[in-house]
Specification:
This protein has seven helices and no strands. The chain is mostly helical and 189 residues long.
């Protein structure tokens, strides 16, 4: 829920684009190792607050329109959450960020076309119009920007998981040994 709101804050009028990276990483982490059903519920719980914040401008029509459209759009994120849970179990963990990025692009592609011609609001690319990812639009449009942002978020999630596992195994002490306590070695003259 909080990560969905964070993604909403990445979009105008707030425009805190780094939150799009954090939110993509958070959703990847929250669905990692879960069942498809758990991933779907996580994606839905991520999507509803995101779209409620993003689409609050529709309140001029009525809050029922905001809530209804948010639930419909969150269903796409539920499908993506199920997919994220499934790809987190694939045998090559190093490819997990790549699969995460592909699923974000596929989710946005589907949401852009279904139902009735789609509703493309809320693409990761639209939160990154003034970010270092913007030049990717010249090469591949909004899908490539989304891919880059989601790939970075997936890589951040992968790094966080690796650090957590190293910490839990006590390997961080072996990975970065510290000198024994005592007097500092003297420098040669």
């Amino acid at each position: 829920m909080i990560s969905g709101l964070a993604l909403g804050l990445a979009f105008p009028p707030f425009g805190v684009w780094p939150l799009s990276l954090v939110a993509a990483a958070a959703l990847a982490l929250l669905t990692h190792g879960r069942t498809a059903r758990q991933g779907a519920w996580t994606g839905f719980a991520f999507g509803v607050p995101f779209f409620l914040l993003l689409l609050k401008w529709l309140s001029v029509v009525g809050w029922d329109a905001v809530v209804g459209l948010s639930i419909i759009e969150a269903a796409f994120l539920a499908l993506m959450g199920a997919g994220l849970a499934l790809v987190s179990r694939l045998p090559v963990p190093a490819l997990w960020p790549l699969w995460t990025a592909c699923l974000w692009v596929a989710e946005e592609w589907a949401r852009d076309r279904v139902p009735f011609g789609g509703f493309p609001w809320g693409r990761l690319a639209f939160a990154n119009t003034g970010s270092p990812y913007t030049p990717l639009a010249a090469l591949g449009g909004a899908p490539l920007v989304t891919f880059g942002v989601a790939l970075t978020g997936g890589a951040l999630a992968g790094a966080a998981l690796t650090l957590w596992r190293l910490r839990g195994a006590g390997a961080s002490r072996r990975a970065a040994p510290c000198p024994p306590p005592g007097p500092w070695p003297s420098r040669p003259p």
